[in-house]
């Protein structure tokens, strides 16, 4: 029991003093194992840390990170903005809709909310400022829109979920995220339109609508990326890991040969930057694996799950409790870390109440998405606020409305599981 308290206590203490999440996970797991188990088991720390990342499906993560960066640097985002403007046209609230649409499409390439937020904010915030949108509003809007990347396939967080939860088909998870992702996008667009009209944001939007067919032709290479990934998975032409490799090859072909705005030096810089990001993610995964192994071996997760189940035998009440905890976790941690830390505890609870694990994974993703743009420590909002050069607290009045509407979208998926499960069931995947 002392080792269990040590596991949680060291982890929380290290987070409070500002230690990186990977360090907190690794040291907490190692300390608990050292106190609670014998020396032979302690010798397994290195083996279990390595085993956490020595998994073939995890190859998809650095490849999708690289894919997102290639498309960001190759000018795809700018062409998608032009295409979205051709669809929406110059109107009050138009640029806000464009920003959300581009975030949804970019999410189908990168699978990462922070990468999505950085790419779109860099392009859209200067244009939105010229059109009369406040910096704080623009930063909050793009941060919320980019959070849909955790739902839109190929989501890196859903890849992690499929690896940690036995029996869950990643293809089913990807398909299950499509409609909730679109629903989350609508939950951003609708209040944005209302606010823009009431506050007269975007009143300075003017100019001619970009030619539709010309902008479509230029955007087709970017639009084809999600089609290639999902189409290849659906047809069985390649696995999710192979899909990531195909996406990288396609992205480099677009940037180097079609758009011709990536030199060999640019390719080298993209490879180096994506390797740095991927290394951080994989270190977190490896040390979170140590944390999860320590908690499972010591019985900490079983005891915690039993304590939660003893609170109530009402599955709906327990689900609400879990959603609230995940919302607060999303405010201070990134999505991948939340999955790695909480799943060893939550999956036994989900199985006890016989919840559909594909549906539960999407609920977790939607909840974490809300946390990614909810202060005080919102990953996406930190990026967009920095680009917009505004303090995060100035975005709160706008972010609150988006939190409410995204929460409404989450509630709909809770009440109507078919929103998530209909598409994978129609495609014949096991859910």
Automatic annotation (TrEMBL):
Superkingdom assignment: Bacteria
Domain spans labelled TRAP C4-dicarboxylate transport system permease DctM subunit: 8-419
Record membrane topology: Multi-pass membrane protein
Keyword Transport listed: yes
Sequence intervals crossing the membrane: 50-71, 92-111, 140-164, 170-195, 243-259, 271-294, 306-329, 336-353, 359-383, 395-423
Keywords noted in UniProt: Cell inner membrane, Cell membrane, Membrane, Transmembrane, Transmembrane helix, Transport
Subcellular location(s) per record: Cell inner membrane
Keyword Transmembrane assigned: yes
GO-annotated cellular components: plasma membrane
Subunit structure: The complex comprises the extracytoplasmic solute receptor protein and the two transmembrane proteins.
Family classification: Belongs to the TRAP transporter large permease family.
Function, as annotated: Part of the tripartite ATP-independent periplasmic (TRAP) transport system.
Protein name: TRAP transporter large permease protein
């Amino acid at each position: 029991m002392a080792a269990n308290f040590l596991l949680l206590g060291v982890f929380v203490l290290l987070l409070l003093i500002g230690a990186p999440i990977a360090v907190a996970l690794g040291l907490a797991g190692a300390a608990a194992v050292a106190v609670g188990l014998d020396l032979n088991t302690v010798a397994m720390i290195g083996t279990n840390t390595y085993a956490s990342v020595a998994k073939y499906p995890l190859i998809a993560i650095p490849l999708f990170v690289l894919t997102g960066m290639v498309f960001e640097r190759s000018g795809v985002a700018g062409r998608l903005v032009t295409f979205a403007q051709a669809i929406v046209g110059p109107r009050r609230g138009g640029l806000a809709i464009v920003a959300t649409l581009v975030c949804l499409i970019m999410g189908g390439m990168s699978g990462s909310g922070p990468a999505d937020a950085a790419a779109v904010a860099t392009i859209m915030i200067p244009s939105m400022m010229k059109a009369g949108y406040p910096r704080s509003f623009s930063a909050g809007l793009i941060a919320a829109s980019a959070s849909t990347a955790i739902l839109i396939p190929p989501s890196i967080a859903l890849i992690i979920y499929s690896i940690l939860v036995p029996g869950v088909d990643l293809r089913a998870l990807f398909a299950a995220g499509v409609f909730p992702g679109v629903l989350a996008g609508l939950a951003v667009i609708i209040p944005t339109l209302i606010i823009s009209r009431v506050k007269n944001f975007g009143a300075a939007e003017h100019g001619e609508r970009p030619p539709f067919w010309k902008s479509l032709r230029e955007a087709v290479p970017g639009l084809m990326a999600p089609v290639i990934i999902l189409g290849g998975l659906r047809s069985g032409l390649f696995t999710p890991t192979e899909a990531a490799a195909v996406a990288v090859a396609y992205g480099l072909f677009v940037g180097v040969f079609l758009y011709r705005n990536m030199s060999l030096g640019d390719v080298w810089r993209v490879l180096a930057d994506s390797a740095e990001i991927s290394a951080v993610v994989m270190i977190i995964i490896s040390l979170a694996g140590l944390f999860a192994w320590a908690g499972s071996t010591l019985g900490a997760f079983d005891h915690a799950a039993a304590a939660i189940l003893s609170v109530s035998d009402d599955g709906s009440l327990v689900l609400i409790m879990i959603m609230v905890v995940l919302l607060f976790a999303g405010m201070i941690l990134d999505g991948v870390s939340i999955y790695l830390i909480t799943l060893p505890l939550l999956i036994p609870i989900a199985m006890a109440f016989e919840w559909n694990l594909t549906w539960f994974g999407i609920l977790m993703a939607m909840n974490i998405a809300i946390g990614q743009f909810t202060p005080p420590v919102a990953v996406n909002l930190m990026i967009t606020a920095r680009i917009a050069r505004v303090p995060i607290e100035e975005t709160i009045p706008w972010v609150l409305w988006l939190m409410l509407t995204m929460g409404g979208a989450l509630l709909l998926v809770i009440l109507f599981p078919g929103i998530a499960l209909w598409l994978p069931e129609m495609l014949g995947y096991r859910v």
